[in-house]
Amino acid sequence: MSVLLSIRPQYVDEILNGNKKYEFRKSQFKNTDVERVYMYSTAPIKKIVGFFRIKSITVDAPERLWVKFSDKAGINKDSFFKYFGDRPEGIAIEIGDVTVYDYPVEPQDYFPNFVPPQSFCYINDSCLKHE
């Protein structure tokens, strides 16, 4: 099972250059079989640029997530806490092996009537595998 995550281009770049080892989310995947995350780089890129495998998922208070992972967060402290707001719980997805597409994918080519997910959406693994 895979998900498509909307990620701002600056954070996609941090993932691709190896500075960002954790992707943070406000809510956990209900399906626990998710193994792969496809990265949709939001405006102005608006393309699926590759994917990564999930090494682990940590659920904890944002304050504790920051203490544990700030050195590998690829995001500054103010942006991190602004993102979580007053939520009591956050999700840290540990980024495993990353695959970058030679040519970013137009989502409309695979998903008719594509609308970028607010956070994430489940997708069929077979439609985007470019390994």
From TrEMBL:
<dbReference type="InterPro" id="IPR007374">
    <property type="entry name" value="ASCH_domain"/>
</dbReference>
<dbReference type="InterPro" id="IPR015947">
    <property type="entry name" value="PUA-like_sf"/>
</dbReference>
<protein>
    <recommendedName>
        <fullName>ASCH domain-containing protein</fullName>
    </recommendedName>
</protein>
<feature type="domain" description="ASCH">
    <location>
        <begin position="5"/>
        <end position="99"/>
    </location>
</feature>
